[in-house]
Amino acid sequence: MWSKDKILSREALVAAVADWQAAGEQVVFTNGCFDLLHLGHVDYLEKARHLGQRLVVGLNTDASVSRLKPGRPLQDEVSRARVLASLLFVDAVTLFDEQTPLALIEAVQPDILVKGEDYAISQIVGHETVLARGGQVLTVPLVPGYSTTRIVERISQNP
Q1: Strand partners of residue 87
Q2: Global pTM?
Q3: Staple 115 to which of 27, 40, 119, 156, CB 3.0 to 4.6 Å?
Q4: How far is Cα 62 from Cα 44, in angstroms, rounded to an integer?
Q5: By the 8 A CB rule, do 88 and 54 touch?
């Protein structure tokens, strides 16, 4: 499978998730900007994937990243999606343009919703939706010292 084949529209993703769940597979969902993929991201996504049989990543569009983080993204959404989709443990990537991924989570209905340990369960967008249908909301440990902001700062200090 080519990495670009893992980048799905919301409608195609909902159908794929339904097929996976019908086959008894647990679907894990997470989301983010993933502007400069680094060890922290890879570790986080790999841990998320090990919580179920399929990993779906909701990726902020360029417009939504810009609203959240002025001056970003550094890479366009197509590039970020292709890089994420190239990871063996990522099963699907879909873009979302809303302020939060709530509508996407409601459409996908994942079995497990995951964010990094820097979030409290009650702060994770979509936690009520997933818990209401009997799913799990979990956090995974992060690799200390890795963030896109920190990398950008280091680069700008060493031109």
Answers
A1: none
A2: 0.91
A3: 119
A4: 22
A5: no
